[in-house]
């Protein structure tokens, strides 16, 4: 059901079974809504990102050395023998090392 624009009176029923007659106390706007156009004198609307002045200034960007450190850290913290048998351990480590960049992209995608 679509309501026409304007003022309405209606009844509200509360979950405990009581009713309340709600009467609108605001009048209908009779004048047209004004259109205001802003003048941005010289602002192109494009702002260049400056990392040094942002909240990300202390952020350490990823590089190959940092990614390898993260990989080694992950290897140390995983309890490999609880999930993988010993003969397959080197194969799994090699596979993860080769595909670590792809795994990081998947991880970031899932987090976002």
Write out key terms for the chains shown:
4 helices, alpha+beta, 112 residues, two-stranded antiparallel sheet, elongated
Order of helices and strands: EEHHHH
Rounded Rg: 31 Å
- Name the helicity range: 25-40%
Number of strands: 2
The class by helix and strand makeup works out as alpha+beta
Spatial strand arrangement across the major sheet: 1-2
Point out poorly predicted stretches. none
- Helix run count: 4
The main β sheet shows up as: 2 strands, antiparallel
Mean pLDDT: 76
**Which word captures the global form?**
elongated
Strand content: 5-15%
The termini sit apart by: 38 Å
How would you describe the overall organization of this protein?
This protein has 112 residues and is of the alpha+beta class. It has a domain at 62-111. Helix content is 36%, strand content 9%. The chain is built from 4 helices and 2 strands. The chain has a two-stranded antiparallel sheet. β1 (9-13) and β2 form a beta hairpin. It is elongated and about 80 Å long. It starts with 8 loop residues before the first strand and ends with a helix. The mean pLDDT is 76.
Question: Which helices and strands appear, and what pairs or packs with what?
Answer:
Layout: E1 9-13, E2 19-23, H1 64-77, H2 80-83, H3 89-98, H4 100-111
Structure in a nutshell:
By secondary structure, this protein is an alpha+beta fold. Helices cover 36% and strands 9% of the residues.
């Amino acid at each position: 059901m679509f309501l026409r624009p304007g003022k309405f009176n209606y009844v509200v029923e509360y979950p405990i079974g009581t009713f309340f007659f709600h009467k609108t106390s605001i009048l209908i706007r009779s004048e047209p809504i004004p259109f205001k156009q802003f003048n941005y004198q010289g602002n192109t609307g494009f702002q260049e990102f400056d990392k040094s002045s942002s909240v990300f200034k202390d952020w350490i960007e990823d590089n190959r050395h940092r990614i390898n450190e993260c990989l080694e850290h992950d290897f140390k913290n995983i309890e490999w023998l609880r999930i993988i048998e010993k003969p397959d351990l080197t194969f799994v480590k090699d596979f993860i090392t080769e595909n670590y960049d792809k795994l990081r992209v998947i991880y970031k995608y899932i987090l976002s």
